[in-house]
Amino acid sequence: MNKRILLFIFLVLAAKANAQSYMGYIPDNYAGIQGVLFNPASIADSRFKTDINLFSTSSSLNNDYYGASLFDLTKSSYDFDKDGVKTPTKNNGGIIYSDIMGPSFMFNIAPKHTVAIYTRARAVVNLDNINGELITRFSDGFNGAESFAPISLGNPQAVGQTWGEIGVSYAAVLWQNKQHFLKGGLTAKYLVGGINSYVDGDNLSAAFIQTGDLSTSQLVTTGSVTIGSNPDFIVGNEDVKFNPDSNGFGADLGLIYEWRPDYESYDLSKAKASDNNFRDLNKYKLRFGLSLTDIGYINYKNLRQDVYNIAGAVSAQDIEDSDFDNIGDFLEDHYGAPVTTYKDSKSNLPTMLHVDADWNMYKKFYLNMTGNLSLVDKQTLNQTYTQNTWMLTPRYETRWFTFSLPINYMEYTGMQVGSGLRFGPLFVGSSSVITNLISKESKGADVYFGFKIPVYEKKFKDTDDDNILDKDDKCPTAAGPIENKGCPWPDKDKDDVLDKDDACPTVAGPVENKGCPWGDADKDTVLDNVDDCATIAGPVENKGCPWPDTDGDSVLDKDDKCPNEKGLAANAGCPELDADKDGVLDKEDSCPTVPGPASNKGCPEVTQEALKELKVQARAVYFVTGKAVLQNADKGQTDGRLDAIKEIIKNYPNAKFSIEGHTDNVGKAASNQKLSEARAKAVMDALIEKGVNPANLSYVGYGATKPVASNKTPKGRAENRRTEVIHVGSIYEGKL
Question: Where does the signal peptide begin and end (predicted)?
Answer without folding.
Answer: 1-19
